[in-house]
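Slack export, channel: ligand-projects

TW: morning all. Re-posting the request from yesterday since it got buried. We need the structure predicted with the small molecule present, not the apo form. The ligand is zinc ion; the SMILES is in the block with the sequence. No rush, but it would help planning for next week.
GE: picking it up
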Amino acid sequence: MRYTTEAHIIAKQYLEQYAKHFGDDQPDVPEIHLPSCLTKKLVFKDYSLHCITNHHKAIKRTRFLQIWRMEFPNVKVRKHQKMTQCTECAVFKEAFLKKLSQDEFKKLEVRRKAHLTLQRIAREKYYKHRTKSQENPQQYLSLIIDNMDQSKTNLPRFPFVSKADNSLTKLHHHVTGVLCHSLQKAYAFTWTDQFASNCNVTLNCLMTVLDDVAKNNGGSLPPTLYLQADNAAKDNKNNYVLMFLAMLVKAEIVKKIKLSFLMVGHTHEDVDQFFSRISVKCHQQAAVTLPDLHQLISTSVKPMPYIQHINSLWDFRKLATSDYSLCDFKDIHHFVFRKADDKVTLKFKNWPLHSEPYRELDVTNAIPDLDVPSIVEGIQPEEVFRFAHGTHIQTILSIAGSRFVS
Ligand SMILES: [Zn+2]
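GE: finished. pasting the full token output, ligand included:
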């Protein structure tokens, strides 16, 4: 038996915070991966420096790594990252492998720390929004939206894949996930290649969630919406989405919307934790049909998520089409739409730093009015299947059936 010393507790807390601020939840496994530019040695170095700065007694490296192994076995530093890496982290990682002079090393360390601090600040802003909505759900609504890697949910799917099954074409099933922090509720929307993968899916999912939140909130929405999305240009970060959010503000559906994006390569968050639970279930349980997939998702997390298969989409994209481009948003990670005195303004900045001033635009006249949208014409099933490389659907279904029976 060993008493937990104060130094032990501090090291444990340090590691916990480190994983929270720098780690990325993995969408396919219940693990948190630290940025690729880090090694365990560098994490220990950061910890030692933290102890010196705060006048704490530091524990030895072997003990530190032991606490890491025992308390945080899911926090990993991976040599080879499966997910897309942050370019800057990859550059640091490569540079650290070379023989550097002390001066070069110090310079690189400063750059690496600045980079990780910036991604931490963006992340902390998201956590702040999340907490605010949980503490005051009448005023704030915080949502995160993302798409799951579709390869995990193609149907039919079996926990054990034989070579014969592997070569067969499967029906693509996409999952879009939304987490509502104020209601502590997860939403999963499934859809097939019947619809093009673009922001219409994102916007339809968003509107369904807003509708559900309003139903849970006595028919109205909290005045402020915090929306966290992925940097994908086709799904989230484009003029249609910005325009549509501005339209919601103009129509006074909500008073203010803050749309935030995390740093590219450091974007995996709690919604990916949700996806990893679905992914784990997919490895344990067969899903031959769509109801099977829904059943599997329904048991992946508690409380049970809201699940819906998208059969038709409103064409919000068409509704939000405008010749006017709201701003050059490629490097922008923080947008705020607000309506005051019949004026809709868009404020934006690269990073949510206090030191960086907002740039502001009056966009009132550029925004189309919110109207009843038309319906997206889906691609016909035969057409969808023609895109899938040739294997006849009957073959898949007969094999699925035989596997299912056996
Ligand atoms: Zn990075």
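GE: first-pass observations. Residues 35, 86, 88-89, 115, 265-266 surround zinc ion (CB under 6 Å). The chain has two domains: 6-123, 140-387.
TW: perfect, thank you
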